[in-house]
Specification:
single chain, alpha+beta, 5-stranded antiparallel β-sheet, 5-stranded mixed β-sheet, disordered C terminus
Protein backbone atom coordinates (compact mmCIF):
# COMPACT_ATOMS: atom_id res chain seq x y z
CA UNK A 1 0.00 0.00 0.00
CA UNK A 2 2.86 2.38 0.88
CA UNK A 3 4.60 1.84 -2.48
CA UNK A 4 1.29 2.18 -4.28
CA UNK A 5 0.63 5.58 -2.66
CA UNK A 6 4.14 6.77 -3.56
CA UNK A 7 3.70 5.77 -7.19
CA UNK A 8 0.28 7.44 -7.37
CA UNK A 9 1.61 10.67 -5.80
CA UNK A 10 4.28 10.85 -8.52
CA UNK A 11 1.63 10.40 -11.21
CA UNK A 12 -0.89 12.91 -9.81
CA UNK A 13 -0.13 15.74 -12.32
CA UNK A 14 -0.93 13.34 -15.18
CA UNK A 15 -4.19 12.00 -13.70
CA UNK A 16 -7.65 13.28 -14.42
CA UNK A 17 -10.03 14.39 -11.67
CA UNK A 18 -12.09 11.23 -12.14
CA UNK A 19 -8.98 9.01 -11.83
CA UNK A 20 -7.95 10.82 -8.63
CA UNK A 21 -11.41 10.31 -7.15
CA UNK A 22 -11.25 6.63 -8.01
CA UNK A 23 -7.80 6.28 -6.39
CA UNK A 24 -8.97 8.08 -3.23
CA UNK A 25 -12.01 5.83 -3.08
CA UNK A 26 -9.78 2.75 -3.50
CA UNK A 27 -7.38 3.89 -0.76
CA UNK A 28 -10.29 4.71 1.58
CA UNK A 29 -11.80 1.27 0.94
CA UNK A 30 -8.44 -0.37 1.68
CA UNK A 31 -8.12 1.57 4.94
CA UNK A 32 -11.66 0.63 5.97
CA UNK A 33 -10.87 -3.02 5.34
CA UNK A 34 -7.69 -2.82 7.43
CA UNK A 35 -9.61 -1.05 10.23
CA UNK A 36 -12.30 -3.74 10.16
CA UNK A 37 -9.64 -6.46 10.41
CA UNK A 38 -8.04 -4.73 13.41
CA UNK A 39 -11.45 -4.24 15.05
CA UNK A 40 -12.29 -7.93 14.51
CA UNK A 41 -9.23 -9.15 16.42
CA UNK A 42 -9.85 -11.06 19.66
CA UNK A 43 -7.06 -9.01 21.25
CA UNK A 44 -7.38 -5.42 22.38
CA UNK A 45 -4.88 -3.11 20.64
CA UNK A 46 -3.90 0.50 21.38
CA UNK A 47 -1.38 2.57 19.43
CA UNK A 48 0.41 5.44 21.22
CA UNK A 49 3.08 7.82 19.99
CA UNK A 50 6.47 8.35 21.63
CA UNK A 51 4.85 10.65 24.19
CA UNK A 52 2.34 7.88 24.98
CA UNK A 53 -0.61 9.86 23.63
CA UNK A 54 -3.37 7.61 22.31
CA UNK A 55 -3.55 7.55 18.50
CA UNK A 56 -5.69 4.51 17.73
CA UNK A 57 -7.70 1.88 19.59
CA UNK A 58 -9.64 -1.13 18.32
CA UNK A 59 -13.12 -2.12 19.49
CA UNK A 60 -12.03 -4.71 22.07
CA UNK A 61 -9.42 -2.44 23.70
CA UNK A 62 -11.97 0.38 23.80
CA UNK A 63 -14.38 -1.92 25.63
CA UNK A 64 -11.65 -2.90 28.11
CA UNK A 65 -10.81 0.76 28.70
CA UNK A 66 -14.41 1.85 29.20
CA UNK A 67 -15.40 -1.11 31.41
CA UNK A 68 -12.26 -1.48 33.48
CA UNK A 69 -9.63 1.21 33.06
CA UNK A 70 -10.72 4.67 31.91
CA UNK A 71 -13.27 6.89 33.60
CA UNK A 72 -13.47 9.51 30.83
CA UNK A 73 -14.36 9.17 27.17
CA UNK A 74 -11.74 7.69 24.86
CA UNK A 75 -10.78 10.06 22.04
CA UNK A 76 -7.80 8.75 20.03
CA UNK A 77 -5.67 11.69 18.88
CA UNK A 78 -7.56 14.15 21.09
CA UNK A 79 -6.77 13.16 24.69
CA UNK A 80 -4.48 15.92 26.07
CA UNK A 81 -2.26 13.66 28.18
CA UNK A 82 -0.46 10.27 28.13
CA UNK A 83 -2.66 7.18 28.27
CA UNK A 84 -1.35 6.12 31.69
CA UNK A 85 -2.73 9.31 33.25
CA UNK A 86 -6.20 8.32 32.10
CA UNK A 87 -6.23 4.98 33.88
CA UNK A 88 -7.92 4.26 37.20
CA UNK A 89 -6.11 0.95 37.71
CA UNK A 90 -2.99 1.96 39.62
CA UNK A 91 -1.01 -1.23 38.93
CA UNK A 92 -1.49 -1.00 35.15
CA UNK A 93 -0.82 2.73 35.32
CA UNK A 94 2.49 2.15 37.14
CA UNK A 95 3.45 -0.57 34.65
CA UNK A 96 2.92 1.72 31.65
CA UNK A 97 4.70 4.61 33.38
CA UNK A 98 7.69 2.38 34.08
CA UNK A 99 7.79 1.24 30.44
CA UNK A 100 7.65 4.88 29.30
CA UNK A 101 10.28 6.05 31.77
CA UNK A 102 12.75 3.20 31.09
CA UNK A 103 11.91 2.92 27.39
CA UNK A 104 10.89 -0.74 27.74
CA UNK A 105 9.45 -2.74 24.85
CA UNK A 106 8.54 -6.38 24.27
CA UNK A 107 7.46 -6.79 27.90
CA UNK A 108 4.34 -8.34 29.39
CA UNK A 109 2.61 -8.42 32.74
CA UNK A 110 -0.64 -9.84 34.14
CA UNK A 111 -3.12 -7.91 36.26
CA UNK A 112 -6.37 -8.63 38.06
CA UNK A 113 -9.05 -5.97 37.76
CA UNK A 114 -12.60 -5.46 38.96
CA UNK A 115 -15.18 -4.09 36.54
CA UNK A 116 -18.26 -2.00 37.34
CA UNK A 117 -20.38 -5.10 38.07
CA UNK A 118 -17.86 -6.33 40.65
CA UNK A 119 -16.54 -9.23 38.58
CA UNK A 120 -12.83 -9.99 38.85
CA UNK A 121 -11.07 -10.31 35.51
CA UNK A 122 -7.47 -11.15 34.60
CA UNK A 123 -5.80 -9.14 31.86
CA UNK A 124 -2.39 -9.53 30.23
CA UNK A 125 -0.86 -6.23 29.07
CA UNK A 126 2.00 -6.37 26.56
CA UNK A 127 4.10 -3.53 25.08
CA UNK A 128 5.62 -3.72 21.59
CA UNK A 129 7.58 -1.27 19.45
CA UNK A 130 5.83 0.56 16.60
CA UNK A 131 8.34 0.95 13.81
CA UNK A 132 7.57 3.00 10.69
CA UNK A 133 10.06 3.85 7.93
CA UNK A 134 12.85 2.50 10.11
CA UNK A 135 12.05 4.84 13.00
CA UNK A 136 10.41 4.31 16.37
CA UNK A 137 7.05 6.04 16.10
CA UNK A 138 5.56 4.84 19.36
CA UNK A 139 4.24 1.73 21.08
CA UNK A 140 1.58 -0.87 20.45
CA UNK A 141 -0.18 -1.91 23.68
CA UNK A 142 -1.98 -5.26 23.65
CA UNK A 143 -4.71 -6.17 26.11
CA UNK A 144 -5.64 -9.83 26.32
CA UNK A 145 -8.41 -11.11 28.61
CA UNK A 146 -7.06 -14.31 30.22
CA UNK A 147 -9.87 -14.71 32.79
CA UNK A 148 -11.15 -17.93 31.23
CA UNK A 149 -7.62 -19.29 30.91
CA UNK A 150 -6.97 -18.66 34.61
CA UNK A 151 -10.34 -20.18 35.53
CA UNK A 152 -9.49 -23.28 33.52
CA UNK A 153 -6.13 -23.54 35.29
CA UNK A 154 -7.84 -23.31 38.68
CA UNK A 155 -10.36 -25.94 37.60
CA UNK A 156 -7.55 -28.18 36.35
CA UNK A 157 -5.71 -27.88 39.67
CA UNK A 158 -8.90 -28.74 41.52
CA UNK A 159 -9.44 -31.74 39.28
CA UNK A 160 -5.84 -32.86 39.87
CA UNK A 161 -6.35 -32.47 43.62
CA UNK A 162 -9.61 -34.41 43.40
CA UNK A 163 -7.88 -37.13 41.40
CA UNK A 164 -5.21 -37.33 44.10
CA UNK A 165 -7.82 -37.53 46.86
CA UNK A 166 -9.73 -40.15 44.86
CA UNK A 167 -6.62 -42.32 44.57
CA UNK A 168 -5.91 -41.83 48.27
CA UNK A 169 -9.50 -42.73 49.16
CA UNK A 170 -9.39 -45.82 46.94
CA UNK A 171 -6.12 -46.87 48.56
CA UNK A 172 -7.55 -46.40 52.04
CA UNK A 173 -10.64 -48.41 51.07
CA UNK A 174 -8.40 -51.27 49.96
CA UNK A 175 -6.43 -51.02 53.20
CA UNK A 176 -9.68 -51.27 55.18
CA UNK A 177 -11.03 -54.09 53.03
CA UNK A 178 -8.01 -56.38 53.57
CA UNK A 179 -8.15 -56.53 57.41
CA UNK A 180 -11.95 -56.88 57.20
CA UNK A 181 -11.41 -59.97 55.07
CA UNK A 182 -8.92 -61.35 57.59
CA UNK A 183 -11.29 -60.65 60.50
CA UNK A 184 -14.12 -62.38 58.63
CA UNK A 185 -11.99 -65.47 58.03
CA UNK A 186 -10.99 -65.72 61.70
CA UNK A 187 -14.60 -65.27 62.83
CA UNK A 188 -15.58 -68.16 60.54
CA UNK A 189 -12.80 -70.32 62.05
CA UNK A 190 -14.06 -69.49 65.53
CA UNK A 191 -17.63 -70.37 64.49
CA UNK A 192 -16.49 -73.76 63.16
CA UNK A 193 -14.56 -74.47 66.36
CA UNK A 194 -17.55 -73.44 68.47
CA UNK A 195 -19.85 -75.67 66.40
CA UNK A 196 -17.52 -78.62 66.81
CA UNK A 197 -17.21 -78.08 70.55
CA UNK A 198 -20.98 -77.75 70.77
CA UNK A 199 -21.49 -81.06 68.95
CA UNK A 200 -19.04 -82.81 71.29
CA UNK A 201 -20.85 -81.40 74.29
CA UNK A 202 -17.76 -79.69 75.62
CA UNK A 203 -19.18 -76.15 75.50
CA UNK A 204 -21.19 -74.98 78.48
CA UNK A 205 -21.93 -71.41 77.26
CA UNK A 206 -25.45 -70.73 76.04
CA UNK A 207 -25.90 -70.62 72.26
CA UNK A 208 -27.45 -67.18 72.39
CA UNK A 209 -24.46 -65.84 74.28
CA UNK A 210 -21.78 -67.01 71.80
CA UNK A 211 -23.11 -68.06 68.36
CA UNK A 212 -25.61 -65.22 68.10
CA UNK A 213 -22.96 -62.62 68.90
CA UNK A 214 -20.61 -64.13 66.33
CA UNK A 215 -23.40 -64.01 63.74
CA UNK A 216 -23.89 -60.30 64.45
CA UNK A 217 -20.14 -59.67 64.04
CA UNK A 218 -20.22 -61.51 60.70
CA UNK A 219 -23.19 -59.44 59.50
CA UNK A 220 -21.46 -56.20 60.40
CA UNK A 221 -18.28 -57.30 58.61
CA UNK A 222 -20.37 -58.06 55.53
CA UNK A 223 -22.04 -54.63 55.77
CA UNK A 224 -18.68 -52.91 56.05
CA UNK A 225 -17.43 -54.85 53.03
CA UNK A 226 -20.44 -53.70 51.02
CA UNK A 227 -19.82 -50.10 52.04
CA UNK A 228 -16.16 -50.34 51.01
CA UNK A 229 -17.02 -51.96 47.66
CA UNK A 230 -19.70 -49.36 46.95
CA UNK A 231 -17.28 -46.61 47.89
CA UNK A 232 -14.65 -47.97 45.50
CA UNK A 233 -17.29 -48.18 42.82
CA UNK A 234 -18.19 -44.52 43.39
CA UNK A 235 -14.69 -43.01 43.49
CA UNK A 236 -13.05 -44.98 40.70
CA UNK A 237 -12.93 -43.06 37.42
CA UNK A 238 -15.13 -44.28 34.60
CA UNK A 239 -13.07 -46.15 32.02
CA UNK A 240 -14.87 -45.48 28.76
CA UNK A 241 -13.78 -46.82 25.37
CA UNK A 242 -15.26 -44.06 23.25
CA UNK A 243 -16.20 -44.83 19.67
CA UNK A 244 -18.29 -43.11 17.01
CA UNK A 245 -21.56 -45.01 17.21
CA UNK A 246 -25.15 -44.37 16.16
CA UNK A 247 -27.17 -44.68 19.40
CA UNK A 248 -30.53 -45.29 17.75
CA UNK A 249 -30.02 -49.03 17.22
CA UNK A 250 -28.97 -49.41 20.86
CA UNK A 251 -32.04 -47.47 22.08
CA UNK A 252 -34.34 -49.60 19.92
CA UNK A 253 -32.77 -52.82 21.25
CA UNK A 254 -33.23 -51.74 24.87
CA UNK A 255 -36.84 -50.69 24.25
CA UNK A 256 -37.57 -54.00 22.50
CA UNK A 257 -36.03 -55.89 25.43
CA UNK A 258 -37.88 -54.07 28.23
CA UNK A 259 -41.22 -53.29 26.56
CA UNK A 260 -42.77 -56.80 26.86
CA UNK A 261 -41.78 -57.11 30.52
CA UNK A 262 -43.05 -53.61 31.33
CA UNK A 263 -46.30 -54.32 29.50
CA UNK A 264 -47.08 -57.13 31.95
CA UNK A 265 -47.22 -54.47 34.66
CA UNK A 266 -49.32 -52.14 32.48
CA UNK A 267 -46.41 -49.84 31.68
CA UNK A 268 -46.05 -48.72 28.04
CA UNK A 269 -42.48 -48.08 26.85
CA UNK A 270 -41.93 -46.27 23.54
CA UNK A 271 -39.22 -44.48 21.55
CA UNK A 272 -39.87 -41.54 19.24
CA UNK A 273 -36.87 -40.85 16.97
CA UNK A 274 -35.64 -37.38 16.14
CA UNK A 275 -37.85 -35.50 13.65
CA UNK A 276 -34.72 -34.85 11.61
CA UNK A 277 -34.22 -38.56 11.32
CA UNK A 278 -32.44 -38.32 8.00
CA UNK A 279 -29.71 -36.32 9.71
CA UNK A 280 -29.30 -38.23 12.98
CA UNK A 281 -25.53 -38.23 13.76
CA UNK A 282 -23.16 -40.68 15.34
CA UNK A 283 -22.00 -39.89 18.86
CA UNK A 284 -18.74 -40.48 20.68
CA UNK A 285 -19.89 -43.02 23.28
CA UNK A 286 -19.09 -46.32 24.95
CA UNK A 287 -21.99 -48.60 23.99
CA UNK A 288 -21.78 -50.69 27.16
CA UNK A 289 -21.81 -47.63 29.44
CA UNK A 290 -24.51 -45.91 27.37
CA UNK A 291 -26.66 -49.01 27.77
CA UNK A 292 -26.03 -48.88 31.54
CA UNK A 293 -27.25 -45.27 31.63
CA UNK A 294 -30.48 -46.07 29.80
CA UNK A 295 -31.21 -49.20 31.84
CA UNK A 296 -30.66 -47.39 35.13
CA UNK A 297 -33.01 -44.53 34.22
CA UNK A 298 -35.65 -46.90 32.80
CA UNK A 299 -35.60 -49.08 35.91
CA UNK A 300 -36.01 -46.01 38.12
CA UNK A 301 -38.91 -44.83 35.95
CA UNK A 302 -40.54 -48.27 36.16
CA UNK A 303 -40.14 -48.30 39.96
CA UNK A 304 -41.70 -44.80 40.20
CA UNK A 305 -44.72 -45.94 38.17
CA UNK A 306 -45.12 -49.10 40.30
CA UNK A 307 -45.04 -46.93 43.42
CA UNK A 308 -47.77 -44.68 42.00
CA UNK A 309 -49.85 -47.73 41.00
CA UNK A 310 -49.68 -49.02 44.58
CA UNK A 311 -50.72 -45.64 46.00
CA UNK A 312 -53.53 -44.79 43.54
CA UNK A 313 -56.19 -47.37 42.79
CA UNK A 314 -57.50 -45.47 39.76
CA UNK A 315 -54.03 -45.18 38.19
CA UNK A 316 -53.39 -48.16 35.94
CA UNK A 317 -51.56 -47.15 32.76
CA UNK A 318 -47.95 -46.20 33.22
CA UNK A 319 -46.09 -44.44 30.40
CA UNK A 320 -42.35 -44.23 29.78
CA UNK A 321 -41.31 -42.27 26.69
CA UNK A 322 -37.90 -41.83 25.10
CA UNK A 323 -37.48 -39.04 22.56
CA UNK A 324 -34.46 -37.75 20.67
CA UNK A 325 -33.83 -34.31 19.21
CA UNK A 326 -31.02 -32.48 17.44
CA UNK A 327 -30.39 -28.97 18.71
CA UNK A 328 -27.43 -26.85 17.61
CA UNK A 329 -24.37 -29.08 18.04
CA UNK A 330 -25.95 -31.44 20.56
CA UNK A 331 -28.09 -34.55 20.50
CA UNK A 332 -30.77 -34.40 23.19
CA UNK A 333 -32.36 -37.49 24.69
CA UNK A 334 -35.52 -37.09 26.79
CA UNK A 335 -36.67 -39.93 29.06
CA UNK A 336 -39.97 -39.19 30.81
CA UNK A 337 -42.45 -41.12 32.94
CA UNK A 338 -45.79 -40.47 34.63
CA UNK A 339 -44.74 -42.09 37.88
CA UNK A 340 -44.76 -40.84 41.44
CA UNK A 341 -42.29 -38.03 40.79
CA UNK A 342 -39.86 -36.54 43.28
CA UNK A 343 -39.96 -33.81 45.88
CA UNK A 344 -37.70 -30.76 45.49
CA UNK A 345 -35.44 -32.06 48.26
CA UNK A 346 -35.01 -35.47 46.60
CA UNK A 347 -34.45 -33.79 43.23
CA UNK A 348 -31.63 -31.63 44.63
CA UNK A 349 -29.73 -34.71 45.81
CA UNK A 350 -30.49 -37.08 42.93
CA UNK A 351 -26.89 -37.37 41.63
CA UNK A 352 -25.18 -37.40 45.03
CA UNK A 353 -23.37 -40.62 46.08
CA UNK A 354 -25.20 -42.81 48.62
CA UNK A 355 -28.42 -40.81 48.35
CA UNK A 356 -31.38 -43.15 47.89
CA UNK A 357 -35.07 -43.32 48.73
CA UNK A 358 -35.19 -47.09 48.30
CA UNK A 359 -34.86 -49.42 51.27
CA UNK A 360 -32.45 -51.71 49.43
CA UNK A 361 -30.80 -49.08 47.20
CA UNK A 362 -27.07 -48.32 47.24
CA UNK A 363 -27.48 -44.68 46.20
CA UNK A 364 -24.83 -45.07 43.49
CA UNK A 365 -26.89 -45.77 40.36
CA UNK A 366 -27.59 -42.15 39.43
CA UNK A 367 -24.09 -41.14 40.51
CA UNK A 368 -22.69 -43.53 37.91
CA UNK A 369 -25.16 -42.24 35.31
CA UNK A 370 -23.91 -38.71 35.95
CA UNK A 371 -20.24 -39.77 35.79
CA UNK A 372 -20.75 -41.69 32.54
CA UNK A 373 -22.53 -38.82 30.78
CA UNK A 374 -19.79 -36.42 31.90
CA UNK A 375 -17.20 -38.89 30.59
CA UNK A 376 -18.95 -38.67 27.21
CA UNK A 377 -18.49 -34.88 27.36
CA UNK A 378 -22.22 -34.38 27.84
CA UNK A 379 -24.60 -33.14 30.48
CA UNK A 380 -27.67 -34.51 32.27
CA UNK A 381 -30.49 -32.73 34.06
CA UNK A 382 -33.78 -33.78 35.59
CA UNK A 383 -37.13 -32.14 36.24
CA UNK A 384 -39.82 -33.73 38.39
CA UNK A 385 -43.16 -32.97 40.03
CA UNK A 386 -44.41 -34.98 42.96
CA UNK A 387 -47.36 -37.11 41.90
CA UNK A 388 -47.05 -36.22 38.20
CA UNK A 389 -43.79 -37.63 36.86
CA UNK A 390 -40.14 -37.15 36.00
CA UNK A 391 -38.11 -36.29 32.90
CA UNK A 392 -34.38 -36.78 32.39
CA UNK A 393 -32.64 -34.76 29.68
CA UNK A 394 -29.32 -36.05 28.38
CA UNK A 395 -27.28 -33.78 26.14
CA UNK A 396 -24.41 -35.29 24.15
CA UNK A 397 -22.15 -33.30 21.82
CA UNK A 398 -22.05 -34.14 18.12
CA UNK A 399 -18.39 -34.73 17.16
CA UNK A 400 -16.85 -32.37 14.60
CA UNK A 401 -16.70 -35.09 11.95
CA UNK A 402 -20.44 -35.68 12.15
CA UNK A 403 -21.25 -31.98 12.23
CA UNK A 404 -19.81 -31.89 8.73
CA UNK A 405 -21.87 -34.92 7.78
CA UNK A 406 -25.01 -33.17 8.98
CA UNK A 407 -24.34 -30.12 6.83
CA UNK A 408 -23.82 -32.39 3.84
CA UNK A 409 -27.21 -34.06 4.39
CA UNK A 410 -26.14 -37.64 5.10
CA UNK A 411 -29.00 -39.96 5.93
CA UNK A 412 -29.34 -41.80 9.22
CA UNK A 413 -28.66 -45.10 7.49
CA UNK A 414 -25.50 -43.76 5.88
CA UNK A 415 -24.36 -42.04 9.07
CA UNK A 416 -24.78 -45.17 11.20
CA UNK A 417 -23.22 -47.50 8.64
CA UNK A 418 -19.87 -45.68 8.46
Amino acid sequence: MRDYVKRVSQMLPKLSEEQIKQIIKSVASENEMLDSIIDSLSTGLMVVNNDWFLLKVNNLAERYLKEIFVNDDINPGKNPEPIYNLLNESEICDFLKECAREDKTNVSQEFSTTNSSGSIRFVQVSIFSWIYDGQMKGRIIKFYDITEKRSQEVLLRRMENMAGLTNLAAGMAHEIKNPLGAIGIHIQLIQRAVKKERELGRLSLEKKFLEDHLDIVNEEIENLNKLVMNFLFAVRPVKASLELKCPEALINNIVSFFAPEFEKSKVALSYTPCKKKNKFPRLLIDEKLFREVLINILQNAFAAIKEKQSEMEDFTQGIIEIKSELKDDNCLLFISDNGSGMSEDTLSHIFEPYFTTKASGTGLGMTMVYKIIKEFGGDISVTSTKGIGTEFTISLPVPQTDKKLLSEGFSLKESCRE
